[in-house]
Design goal:
Blueprint: E1 7-13, H1 23-34, E2 38-45, H2 49-61, E3 67-71, H3 82-89, E4 92-93, H4 95-106, E5 119-122, E6 125-130, H5 134-144, H6 148-155
Parallel strand pairs: 1-2, 1-3, 3-6
Antiparallel strand pairs: 4-5, 5-6
Helix pairs in contact: 1-5, 2-3, 4-5
């Protein structure tokens, strides 16, 4: 099988509308580029459950992206609603990916046990929540980056 570059969209959640201050989103963008994957969309939205859900649906259903990476909104703050918005739109959870991130992150910093990040599928799009800090987002993505192409391949009907 010839692997094609994943088509990835990045959605950063922050009440700050200043894209220049979105260090975590930019760090994730660099990782995507370094992996040779195609970034097809990037947006910064406020922490609003309905806005987040609507954007996830639009990217998955209309743009048919392979992977949507959300950055931020996974903690315990009352404004952290990314996992709820993600669950609102996914067809099935893929809990092993979020569990793997938490397990590997635990070895570095125990506070990562407070992450409520989820991962799931909407049709053939994988949606993965990452933390909002630059270090947390890039470390988390690095723990599972190598399995994402296989996950996408499998979602599209490829074998194990």
């Amino acid at each position: 099988m010839v692997e094609q570059a994943l088509r990835v969209a990045i959605l950063t959640l922050s009440d700050s509308r200043d894209q220049t201050s979105d260090k975590a989103g930019h760090s994730v963008r660099e990782m995507i580029e370094d992996a040779g994957w195609q970034q097809v969309a990037y947006e910064l939205l406020p922490d609003d459950r309905e806005l987040i859900a609507n954007k996830l649906v639009a990217w998955a259903d209309q743009m048919s992206v392979d992977v949507i990476l959300t950055v931020g909104g996974t903690g315990l703050s009352p404004r952290d609603l990314t996992p709820e918005a993600t669950r609102d739109v996914i067809d099935r959870e893929v809990p092993g990916i979020a569990e793997a991130i938490r397990a590997d992150s635990w070895k570095i910093k125990h506070v990562t046990a407070l992450s409520r990040a989820v991962c799931g599928m909407r049709s053939c799009t994988l949606i993965l929540n990452l933390p909002g800090s630059s270090k947390g987002a890039t470390e988390s993505l690095s723990f599972v980056m190598d399995i994402l192409p296989h996950a996408v391949h499998t979602m599209h009907g490829g074998g194990h």
